[in-house]
């Protein structure tokens, strides 16, 4: 078994926790995110997904589970690890797997998705494709991507934004690419939803906001309390 297959196999059947804070938020600090990641690993997370070079480096130094790294730049178009340079910087910061935008939109550096993956594979990297549709997944699969994910479903205009995880897309990807691990990510807010996608055949599940974003969680509870008060 190769190191890549061993790494990917370590994710199978497990929970990946996304530890990210948005710009301007109180938790937006590498040490804080490292503590959050460490707590998630103690709770059973098989990997941590995180954003930004400082966070990747800090988290890698605090957890023994694999780190999935990405670098967001901008807030529209291709902004999740948008270029080969961004991906290589994530790897240099210490991530074990690099997550990149796998949509069919133009990439800022002019490279195609396939060219980006080929260059990263030449570097020895393991690549996770953040897809927004089935056509994205097909392109990523054709490029030889190591892991496919539903991360961008509902955010690129190709698919409706579902209330919970996009189980339909997940199922389509699993059935079409049975030899490639397919991870479900996006709008998984309850243990029941996590169980649902695993029962649908996901290789692993990524949960972020519901575990690591207290502002959003507080808003959910606040909305419920306010709704009850109006009755």
UniProtKB/TrEMBL annotation:
One of its GO terms (cellular component) is cytosol. Belongs to the NanE family. SUPFAM superfamilies: Ribulose-phoshate binding barrel. One of its GO terms (biological process) is carbohydrate metabolic process. Its EC number is 5.1.3.9. Keywords: Carbohydrate metabolism, Isomerase. Converts N-acetylmannosamine-6-phosphate (ManNAc-6-P) to N-acetylglucosamine-6-phosphate (GlcNAc-6-P). It catalyses: an N-acyl-D-glucosamine 6-phosphate = an N-acyl-D-mannosamine 6-phosphate. It comes from Nanchangia anserum. This is Putative N-acetylmannosamine-6-phosphate 2-epimerase. The keyword Isomerase applies.
């Amino acid at each position: 078994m190769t190191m890549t297959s061993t790494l990917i196999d370590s994710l199978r059947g497990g929970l990946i926790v996304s530890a990210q804070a948005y710009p301007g938020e109180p938790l937006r600090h590498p040490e804080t995110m490292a503590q959050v990641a460490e707590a998630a690993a103690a709770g059973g997370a098989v990997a941590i997904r995180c954003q930004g070079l400082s966070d990747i480096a800090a988290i890698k130094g605090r957890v023994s589970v694999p780190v999935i790294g990405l670098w967001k730049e901008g807030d529209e178009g291709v902004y999740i690890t948008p270029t080969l340079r961004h991906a290589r910087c994530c790897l240099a910061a210490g991530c074990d797997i690099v997550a990149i935008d796998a949509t069919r939109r133009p990439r800022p550096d002019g490279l195609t998705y396939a060219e980006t993956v080929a260059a990263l594979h030449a570097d020895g990297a393991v690549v996770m494709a953040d897809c927004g549709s089935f056509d994205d997944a097909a392109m990523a699969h054709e490029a030889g991507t190591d892991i496919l994910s539903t991360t961008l479903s509902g955010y690129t205009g190709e698919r409706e934004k579902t209330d919970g995880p996009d189980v339909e897309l997940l199922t389509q990807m699993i059935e079409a690419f049975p030899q490639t691990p397919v991870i479900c990510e996006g709008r998984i807010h309850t243990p029941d939803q996590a169980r649902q996608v695993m029962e649908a055949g996901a290789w692993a599940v990524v949960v972020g906001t519901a575990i690591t974003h207290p502002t959003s969680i507080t808003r959910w509870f606040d909305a419920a309390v306010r709704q009850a008060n109006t009755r």
